[in-house]
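User: Could you write out the 3D structure of this protein bound to manganese (II) ion? I've included everything you need below.
Assistant: Certainly. Input first, then the structure.
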Amino acid sequence: MAAPILGTFSSCASEAKPFQGHKFPELGYGYDALEPYIDAETMELHYSKHHKGYFTKFMAEAEGTDLLNMPMEKIFGQISKYSDGIRNNGGGYYNHTLFWENMTPSKTDLTSELKSAIEKDLGSVDSFKEEFAKAAKTHFGSGWAWLARDNDGKLFVSSTPNQDNPLMDIAEKKGTPLLGIDVWEHAYYLKYQNKRADYVDNFWNIVNWDVVDQRLRSAIS
Ligand code: MN
């Protein structure tokens, strides 16, 4: 299993790896790899235009400031101090990196550790999936739905507007994101048009549970 590229963002005190600077990530699979659930045209536009755009604008905003040497987790922890440009583009840069990582063309299964954590905090795997899908389907307008772990170690499901995420100090429910789904129309409209619910239901076919499990482990350590 490949280590998540998210390691480039690492600011976890227990990890020895120093921050290497902001970097536009590799996608890790082809544009058509997630077909039929996510079509190649959507993937190409989403990665090479939308995600790249957030990264480029974030870097332009960060130019000449100490943000260039600050891990995203740290920036998000005090995001209320920064401009909307940093919040929106930094969020877009980070959230999409998580999103590409937490999907895979190879089928993976929920690990036993993750399953136990979900059952303990969210009732059952089915009720978690239902809660997550509901958050994704009913979030009004553009945004994201999340499975995250709060600072007391409890898993929760939430949604955030625009490019916000649970790491941000302005988030209603704060924690470490483990799994995210992009519910902006640009994430699904070419294939699914107005049927966001179908896109959300199909998402389960391509979730990379190994990466979600790794994120849980590094959040715990
Ligand atoms: Mn997007």
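The pocket of manganese (II) ion is lined by residues 46, 50, 96, 182, 184, 186-187 (CB under 6 Å).
User: Perfect, thank you.
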